Amino acid sequence: MTKHFFEYFNDVFPARWNEHALTDYNGDIDYTFGDVAAQIQRIGNYFRAIGIQPGDKIAICGRNCANWAVAYLAIANYGGIIVSILQDFHGDDIRDLLNHSDAKVLFIGPYVLKNILEEETYKNILVDNGTIPEMLPQMKAIISLTDFATLYSTADTESLANFDIPSLDPEEFSFPIRNIDNQLLINYTSGSMGAPKGVMLSYRSLSSNIAAGLKFLPNKPGWKVVSMLPLAHMYGQLAEFLYPLANGCHIYFLTKTPTPTLLMKAFSDVHPYEVVTVPMVIEKIYKRSLAPVLDKKVIKSIMHVPFFNRVIKQVIKSKLMKAFGGELKYFMVGGAALNEDVERNLLKVGFPLVVGYGMTECGPLIGGCHIKDFVPRSSGHILPNNEIRIDSADPYHEVGEILVRGEHVMMGYYKNEEATKATFTEDGWLRTGDLGIIDKHNNIFIRGRNKNMILGASGQNIYPEEIEDKLNNMEGVVESVVVEREGKLVALVFPDYAKSGELEFDSRIVALMKENLQKINKLLPKYSQISKIELQKDEFDKTPKKSIKRFLYK
């Protein structure tokens, strides 16, 4: 029987009442579990005062911060439906999603609010609780995530910031255990294939995901986490907020854009037990720091000597562990495929790497495992909260679409019955859009996206991600996208300009890419060889979770 995630919180909050829970890294907010409980009660009192009912939609849009997490818990505690929207969406899109979701209250970062309102309207709000005519007609209140001040309200009541913070007895505080099948959330995806859709998730979906996380990546009360992935994305929301908090971990929120310098300092200061990220982060660290060392001839030669092999591996692992704070137990990668060479060399030195698999529609986990059970090139094994079926005649050898069924699967897309129907098979399996196989131990091996697959001239299935994985590991290549043009494959490449010292295409980059073209075609079967490499002046446009928006490139 699935344990409601409020039950985890009801065990943790009273037991760790005066311990640190939610902290803004390099900020002023540092909440204990008791502080969080008091803020939850205060926000609930405000909801009642302005006429909000359980079941009403309440949106959150802003950078990661302790108040984002408090608002989330307060809405859930009150029985509202959370609408999580990525702050990186365009202002017009955010406004459209707020209207589409029927949100009646909005918790927002002031800088985001400025992007979604006309300048004069924004000024009026800041000066005198101005009106928002026509723009957000259903909105009853807009609240700042900075300090919970009410920026706008249709109700005749004082600002939330002025509501008293109640004094609570830890023995008397508890989250109400609502029907686990009730809707908890509408999450607007940032898919790399097109427009966002509102994914409806239940308490059961999140509860089963938290249970799975605690099982394959166990943690302990007081362990620390750096929250750097967008909280509005299910990956960050589950792995860096709900799952660690459910067992009493202490979460530090990066309230600024997570630059490499800021991340390394935060890891050094916080000493997190886990780092959860997308492949691009560790791949950049590898290419800048590890690859130059491992590629040296002298290192390659002495790596064949057992004693030196062990010493070098230990030195490399030690430096990596220190870079991530020294207390790292799990380095979890998800959201896209990890480069094969990067994965192989990290595992070779004993780095605690684990690769997972999921999607927003599954809240998000589908595959994962403990580091000791991780099989190279897999995306973990099928988790106990779901079933997987490969849509092929031989799921162990023949690639097919990955179909999923289980209690973590979404309730559907909000106000989009057509898209919901298209996403499920007639017998109730969710179409992931991913292609892959499984092995006899239920490990999942992703081969690519269904929508990305290219059909070769003789009927062969070509997976551009597999070609890109090889290409991205070649000298001078930062990232790439393989597309089909008139029956031929073309590789769009954003090169490493730092290697040439130039900001324009020069002869050195062009010559290097000609060499890369010859090298990669030697690694590929004839039907999937690249006809040419086309250089890009700018990085590829990406979603907030750093997946390339492939639909933009043809």
Fold and architecture overview:
It contains 17 helices and 27 strands. By secondary structure, the chain is α/β, with parallel strands linked by helices. It has three domains: 5-246, Rossmann fold (3-Layer(aba) Sandwich), CATH 3.40.50; 274-326 and 328-449, 3-Layer(aba) Sandwich (Rossmann fold); 455-552, GMP Synthetase, Chain A, domain 3, CATH 3.30.300.30. An eight-stranded mixed beta sheet has the order 7-6-5-3-4-8-9-20, with helices on both faces. Strand 6 and strand 7 form a beta hairpin. The chain is globular and about 70 Å long. The two termini are 48 Å apart.
Shape: globular
Under the CATH scheme, which class of the largest domain? Answer: Alpha Beta
Q: How many whole angstroms does the radius of gyration measure?
A: 24 Å
Number of domains: 3
Largest sheet: number of strands, sense, barrel closure: 8 strands, mixed
CATH-derived topology of the largest domain: Rossmann fold
Counting H and I runs of at least 4 residues, what is the number of helices?
17
Helix percentage:
25-40%
Strand order of the largest sheet: 7-6-5-3-4-8-9-20
Q: Count the strands? A: 27
What structural class do you assign from the helix and strand content? Answer: alpha/beta
CATH architecture group name of the largest domain: 3-Layer(aba) Sandwich
The portion of residues forming beta strands comes to 15-25%
Average pLDDT, rounded to a whole number, is 87
